[in-house]
Automatic annotation (TrEMBL), chain A:
CDD domains: TPP_TK. This is Transketolase. Coiled coil: none annotated. Signal peptide: none annotated. Keywords: Thiamine pyrophosphate. Residues 12-267 form the Transketolase N-terminal domain. Belongs to the transketolase family.
Length: 276, 317
């Protein structure tokens, strides 16, 4: 959308991380770990690769972005606010009564949300529907589905995976925030889904494996993914849960526990110290 | 005795109407989960192969794709057996369709126990209960070929999620060709003074037969066809309850959570009268011919008559 350079995108992602910390500390509940791990991916989409118009959220030719891992809503809200869908100040209403910023995304309440999510494993099917509508209408938009490693546990994911390749669905790009943890612990201890790349390849998806915090790599891979014809694309992005805040990184306590005021101050100080 | 003139199965009426709708509206897109020959979406598939997809035996994915299509302005009609689509797709109906308020049309076949010989695993006596509890979903159950055709057309015009049950066997004809139907408006088929028989689906004809038998015994019954369980026609129910002072609810569904439960809760608020129920009890049915099952599980005109007489004795206490 915008001709932003990598450094600027990294700076925006850092601001988003600060938003996430502030919002969650204010709400005193929510999911910091998975919001911080997906931030760079969302920054790359909303501020670089995806075509969208905050002044016209229902633009028929817009790219569709589905946050299938709905618990990372704070990261999505920050991306929407900072790209101009609503004032950044409003982020502090997260999870409060009457706020459009529900605990998990609610399309009825907030322009820019393509589909309500929060129950895992459903976004890929919805994305297929949107990509199918594109094909029927001969439009040229892309559908992006942001999914998670935990969502790979869900059977519906694999129903969708089989369908999309069989029907040669292109203009459909899934990006997996592979942060290695789910609520109850490490993915490899709860229900290991490895070999992840082999699984997606064998399901007929054109598969990339990238560092989900390397902004240049994310952007380049998405641009490359858009050139793939007659097949859906899965970008497996290796990420760190809680990325950007050292005491949250890889610490699954912060899967679904908001930082205290004191922890938030420490986190913000650390994020402020990052140089780009 | 009322003549039992058989019309099409409501699933056939659905399949044919869908083709007509498809000719008029390019946005209609139909999907099935490997039961198109049984749900009759195969009629549409033959005429519009570009607007039909069989997703395979994957109901959750089916519902999700429909939500995505609806979010982009399409009007998806999705079908499978009632038990499979509603139970396996339920969470997707909740999250991706109802909570997202999307314009998805869910038309299931093989509702109730009149599915017959295939047995309990293929029958559905819980679909109303499940779909009634999802916010915004319209819940419909046509009683014959004519009403099925009209209500499928209404569903296509209506903006929002719709659930409709159709059945496998041929249904007796109740309505004249061209009868007008409106979502949420019950049909008062007969007006009586002593009690009101409220029925839905295949039980509507049984209710009419029951009213004939009751008439011979000097009891005059109103008969209402509730083709829309949600939103239900409160006004018509209240009016008939006030007039007749007793009700019998009849449905090919579990006694828990279907027509009877909705009518009881409406009447408790609007006009408390004695109510009794003709429905499948707290049990699964079994294999058998549809008529044998309807009889064994107590859903015949004779059962309605018996239940009516019981409720009348409570009314007169």
């Amino acid at each position: 959308m915008q001709a932003l350079q990598t450094e600027e995108l990294c700076r925006i992602a850092n601001e988003m991380r600060k938003d996430i910390i502030r919002m969650l500390a204010e709400a005193a509940s929510g999911h910091p770990g998975g919001s911080l791990s997906v931030t760079d991916i969302l920054a790359a989409l909303y501020f670089k690769t995806a075509r969208h118009d905050p002044n016209n959220p229902n633009w028929p030719d817009r790219d569709r972005i589905i946050l299938s891992k709905g618990h990372a809503a704070p990261a999505l809200y920050s991306a929407l606010a900072r790209s101009g869908y609503f004032p950044v100040d409003q982020l502090m209403t997260l999870r409060k009564l009457n706020s459009p910023l529900q605990g998990h995304p609610d399309r009825r309440r907030l322009a820019g949300i393509e589909i309500s999510t929060g129950s895992l494993g459903q976004g890929l099917s919805v994305g297929i529907g949107m990509a199918l509508a594109r094909r029927l209408d001969q439009k040229n938009y892309w559908t992006y589905v942001i999914t998670s490693d935990g969502e790979m546990n869900e059977g519906q994911t694999w129903e969708a995976a089989s369908f999309a390749s069989f029907h040669k669905m292109d203009h459909l790009i899934a990006i997996m925030d592979y942060n290695k943890f789910q609520l109850d612990g490490a993915v490899k201890e709860v229900l290991d889904m490895e070999p992840m790349v082999d699984k997606w390849k064998s399901f007929g998806w054109y598969t990339f494996e990238i560092d989900g915090h390397n902004m240049e790599g994310i952007v380049k891979t998405i641009e490359l993914a858009k050139t793939i014809k007659n097949a859906p694309v899965m970008i497996i992005a290796h990420t760190i849960k809680g990325k950007g805040v050292s005491f949250m990184e890889g610490n699954n306590h912060f899967h679904g526990v908001a930082p205290t005021k004191e922890e938030a101050e420490r986190a913000l100080k650390e994020l402020d110290s990052h140089k780009f | 005795m009322r003549e039992r003139k058989m019309g099409l199965a409501t699933r056939d009426a659905y399949g044919k109407t869908l083709v007509e709708l498809g000719r008029k509206n390019r946005d209609i897109f139909v999907m099935d989960a490997d039961l198109a020959k049984s749900t009759k979406t195969d009629f549409f598939a033959k005429e519009f192969p570009d607007r039909f997809i069989n997703v395979g035996i994957a109901e959750a994915n089916l519902v999700g794709i429909a939500a995505g299509l609806a979010a982009c302005g399409k009007i998806p009609f999705i079908s499978s057996f009632a038990c499979f689509l509603i139970c396996k797709g339920y969470e997707q109906f909740r999250m991706s369709v109802a909570f997202s308020e999307l314009n998805v049309k869910v038309v299931v076949s093989h509702g109730g126990i009149s599915v017959g010989e295939d047995g309990a695993s293929q029958q559905s006596t819980e679909d109303f209960a499940l779909m009634l509890s999802l916010p915004k979903f319209v819940v419909m159950n046509p009683s014959d070929e004519v009403s099925a055709r009209a209500l499928v057309e209404q569903a296509a015009k209506y903006q929002g999620p719709v659930f409709m049950r159709t059945g496998r066997p041929k249904y007796p004809v109740i309505y004249h060709e061209g009868t007008q139907f409106e979502i949420g408006k019950g049909m008062l088929l007969r007006e009586g003074a002593d009690l009101t028989i409220v029925a839905t689906g295949i039980l509507v004809f049984e209710a009419l037969m029951a009213s004939d038998i009751l008439a011979e015994r000097g009891i005059s019954a109103s008969v209402i066809d509730i083709h829309t369980l949600k939103p239900i026609d409160r006004e018509l129910l209240r009016q008939q309850a006030e007039k007749t002072g007793a009700m019998v609810c009849c449905e090919e569904h579990s006694i828990y959570g279907g027509l009877g439960s909705v009518v009881a809760s409406v009447m408790a608020e609007e006009c408390p009268v004695p109510i009794a129920y003709v429905a499948v009890q707290d049990t699964f049915a079994e294999s058998g011919r549809p008529d044998e099952l309807i009889q064994k599980y107590g859903l015949t005109a004779a059962n309605i008559v018996q239940t009516a007489e019981k409720v009348l004795s409570r009314k007169h206490k």
